[in-house]
Each structure stands twice: as structure tokens, then as C-alpha cells.
Amino acid sequence: MNADELLSGSAAAIAAAVRGGDISAMAIVQASLVRICKTDKRVNAFTDVTAQRALQAAAALDARLAVGDTTVQDLPLLGVPFAVKNLFDVAGLTTLAGSKIERGKPAATADAPLVVRLQAAGGVLVGALNMDEYAYGFTTENTHEGPTHNPHDLTRIAGGSSGGSAAAVAAGQVPITLGSDTNGSIRVPSSLCGTFGLKPTYGRLPRNGSYPFVASLDHLGPFGRSAMDLALTYDAMQGFDAHDPGCVARPFEGTVDTLELGTSGLRIATLGGYFHDNADAHARDAVMRVAKALDANRVVQLPEVARARAAAFIISNSEGGSLHLPDLRTRAADFEPLSRDRFLAGALLPAAWIHQAQRMRRWFALRAAELFRDVDVLLAPATPCVAPTIGSEWIDIDGKRLPSRASMGLLAQPISCIGLPVCAVPVWGCHPSLPIGVQVIAAPWREDLVLRVAHRLQEVGIASSPVAALPT
Amino acid sequence: MTPAQIEAYVDATAALLELPLAAEHRPGVLHYFSLAAGLAHLIEAHPLDITDDPAESFVPIEPSQAPHGSHA
Fold first, then answer.
1. How confident is the model over A22-73, as pLDDT tens digits?
2. Is residue A472 situated within a structural domain?
């Protein structure tokens, strides 16, 4: 395969080709940079392309291979181009978090720990990606940078807030990216752009070196075109870091080696009630197809899901508003118009509401823990519908007219509220031309299970993540 | 909360926090505050026991975990 063909495939195949001497890291990275150059005027996934740095890193990897450095040959992401949401620190770039306000601030002096870990695994950073300002949105209709377009239909949103991260993968610009997920910001764009996305357990991956939104709920995680690529990337990023007070000291719990174990013996059920009622026919069909492929006939309920979603909303609104209070006081007009008034309102919420929301959150987490005594994996739609067109104000779900931008996270929020690991898997064929995602959910710290199920769904042809046909 | 109560609360709290609300932003702020109030009401309507602790927890920091440099 040539570099362009490899770039459209998996990170695992790229690393194998570089390892085997079939292609150089330089050729792959150059192919990625060319693809970005040819497609990004239409997709608008990237806000910065770090070409010089990427070419130097690729040359360094090739030089190590040329002298027979055996340590480099074992790297799981050898020569794999990757990009990160622009809330990750990248040395030499200002960390924008999608904002105008951060422009002109000093550049980061060091890479975020997760960027460091991916590079240590052989990955090559090629740039930073578009997002909703300060991660407060589900559409990546960023007024300062322009909207990110869905590669599978350029008139539609990519989802958000990690819209650039999903679009870059779907557009074939890079095979893996990193994003963040507070209320659905990995799972929503994964669903709308047809990529795999992993939101690990809350506290699993360190967040230091990334611009925060809601410390109580923020997660970081990878996007890719296969469950194997997610597993390779996620395993390379595991490890405690005391600089993130939310990071939990867990041992390394690898997922790559268990990926092929299949789903036999797993107790898998579909979440009904709220997750059925807030999904349209395409989203319900996607879950039914996944459940059928997994021979999962049970439907189970979580109680008080709407209240859990309300708790996530209140906590996010308050913490986000409070975090930005100094800038809201002095330069509110420079905030993203689509989220500014929400930030302002959030800064004013009474303490009693927030405290009660945190109590509701723990109550709901206990109910989920009870359910997981009897079930290993839960299925639910990732979004209520496929990608709306850019600028949509309303969506129609089961006869209900809902505000488009806020409602794209309705089904993701209750799950991240209690920090469960989720893999969003892309399903095609429910809509005539667009993908829609299904959340594969497990008990805390069981990322291995959600990736196993996602891998199985890919093996049986239910889930797939093709590169969009973007004529160059 | 009634719309009048929300207006009164938002204006008073914004003044207390020295957070100016521009005329063009205020209707949106009232809209989103009303939305949050509705969701807060939904949560408050759910009975919780005195033993239902909040999800937040604080982890004490050992001297070895203190960052270099002093803020004292």
C-alpha cells in the first residue's frame, strides 16, 4: 500500500508498515499534511498545523529505525500522525480552547502529558483542532474559527465540542485524535461523524496540560476508525499523574490484549425508558441493530435519568460560569455568542442548587452500580438523531420540538455525569447517507469491556468508520 | 421561581458579583437562568436522605505532592 492508502486505514496498519520497513514515517506524515492541505478548507477541522515539528519528529523516528534502534520498532503508534483538540497544551502554541479571549496569551511551554505519552509511543503530532469555545457546546459552530463541517455531508455539523477531532478522523486527515468529553463531547461528534470514540472512566487519564471546563466532569479520550486503534491509543496514555487532582491512582489495565476475547459470556442489555424516548427512529434502529448482533435481548432501566441529566447541566453551568467569571466581568462581548449567555447565567446559580445536583449525581451513580451487579454492558443511542444542518435551531424527536444545540447531548450527559466508560460505535444504514453512534457502556474501570464489544461489532460488520469521500 | 423572581434574583446577584449584564445579553441570561431553575426544581423534587452525600470529595495533599514554588 502507498502512503495515501495507509493514511485512510488504521493506525495499527500504519505502525506495522513503518515497523516492517514498507514505508517511512516521513512518507506517512507528509501524506497526512498533504491531505490536510487539500481538504481542510472545506472541513475546517484544524486551527493549527504543526508541519515543521511533525516533519522533524518523523525524520527522527526514521533515523532511529535506520540505525537499527530496536526500542523504536516496538512502539505501538510508530509513525502514526495524530492531532489534538486545541484545549491540549502544545509547546509553542497558545492553548486557545476555541476562544478569542485566549488569543495573544503566551504559548504553552510544554506539551500536555497525554501528548507526551502518544509521542513516546511513536505518534507524530501534526496539529490542533477546532472546538466549541471553552468546550461549552455540542456543534463546533465556532464563531471565531468558523464551523467544522461534517466530512460525510459538508452542510451538516460535525458535533461537538470535539468536532475537529471527529472530523479530522472522518476526513482521513489523521487516523487518531484526542478530544475531551464533559457532557458528551467525544460521543456526540463520534456519532455524527461516524468515528469510534472512547470516553474512559472519570479519573482514568490525567487532564493536566489541558484547558479545563468543568473539573467535576471533564474527561479526555481518543477518536479513531477502529476499536483496535482506540485501544492502542488509550493504553499508551494510561498512567497516574498527581498534577491532576481528579486522576485516580490505578494500575495499568491494558485493553489491547483482551480485545479479541469476544462477547460470549457478557451480560449485555439495552437501556430503555429515557434513552428510548429521547431518540428518533434512526437512533433507535442503530441500537436495535447492535443489540441484535450481540444477541442482547434484555431491556433494563436506570431510574431518574432526566434528573441525572439535570444534575450534569447544573454542575456544568455553574462550574463553567464560575471559572470564566473574571473574563465575563470585563469582556463578555468577546465570548462566543452561542454560549456567552449560558456562561453568564451559570455564574449566578445559587449554591444550594449545585450542592443538590452533586448529591443527585451520587444517588444516580449508586443506582447504576446496583444495575451493574446484574449486567456487564449497557447499550444506548449516542445522539437523539443524525447530524443536523449547520445553523439548525431545532430538532424533532419523537414528535417533540427540541432546541438543537443543547439537545444533541441529551443521551450522553446522564452517563458522563457518573463517569462510566463508554465507547461510541458508528452504525451505518439506519439513515440513507449518514452515520449514527451507539454508546457501549460498562461499569467504572471496565474500558476493556466497551472496547471488546466495539471490536466485536466491527468484526461482524455492524460498526464501521469509513473515510468520507472528499474529492481532492 | 416566577419570571419576576428570576429577574430580581439575576439582577441582584449580578450586582453582588460585580458582573455587568449588557442590555443585549440580559434576555439570554434570563432565558438560560430560567432553564437552570427548571432543572434545579426537577432535582429538588426528588427526595434525598440526609445520608445521600454529594459526589464531590476532597483528597488531602501530602507534602510530597505539593508543587514546587510557594504561593504563601
1. 999 999 999 999 999 999 999 999 999 999 999 999 999 999 999 999 999 9
2. no
User: What does the DSSP assignment read for A141-202?
Assistant: EETTTEEPEETTEEEEE--SSSHHHHHHHHTTS-SEEEEEESSSTTHHHHHHHT-EEEE--T
Residue A161 falls in the annotated catalytic set: yes
Has residue A396 been placed in a domain? yes
- Please tell me whether the interface predicted TM-score (ipTM) of this complex is above 0.85: yes
Is A120 at the interface with chain B, CB within 8 A?
A: no
Q: Is A466 among the domain residues?
A: no
Say whether residue A333 is in contact with chain B using an 8 A CB cutoff: yes
Nearest beta carbon to residue B48 from set A332, A342, A359: A359
- Measured CA angle at B46 (ends B45, B50), to 5 deg: 115
What residues make up the domain containing A300? 3-459
Note whether A313 contacts B: Cβ–Cβ < 8 A: yes
- CB distance A311–B46 less than 8 Å? no
Q: What is the CATH number of the domain that holds A97?
A: 3.90.1300.10
Point out the residue among A216, A242, A311 whose CB comes nearest to the CB of B65. A242
Distance CA A364, CA A74 (A): 43
Q: Which residues contact A51 (CB under 8 A, 6 or more apart)?
A: A33, A126
Q: State the pLDDT at residue B60.
A: 81
Residues facing residue A219 across a β-bridge = A181
Catalytic residue among A161, A162, A165, A465: A161
Which residue's entry shows cell 468484526? A459
Residue A316 designated active-site: no
**Cβ proximity of A297 and A406 under 8 Å:** no
pLDDT in tens, B20-36: 999 999 999 999 999 99
Whether the predicted pLDDT of B71 surpasses 70 = no
| Interface list for A 222-241 with B (CB within 8 A) | none
Query: Is A85 a known active-site residue?
Result: yes
Total domain count, chain A: 1
A84-133 pLDDT tens trace: 999 999 999 999 999 999 999 999 999 999 999 999 999 999 999 999 99
Instruction: Tell me if A96 is assigned to some domain.
Output: yes
Contact A347 B52 (CB under 8 A): no
Nearest Cα residue in chain B from A305: B43
Q: Tens digit of pLDDT for each residue in A373-416?
A: 999 999 999 999 999 999 999 999 988 999 998 899 999 999 99
Cβ-nearest to A306 among B9, B29, B42 = B42
How many Cβ pairs within 8 Å bridge chains A and B? 107
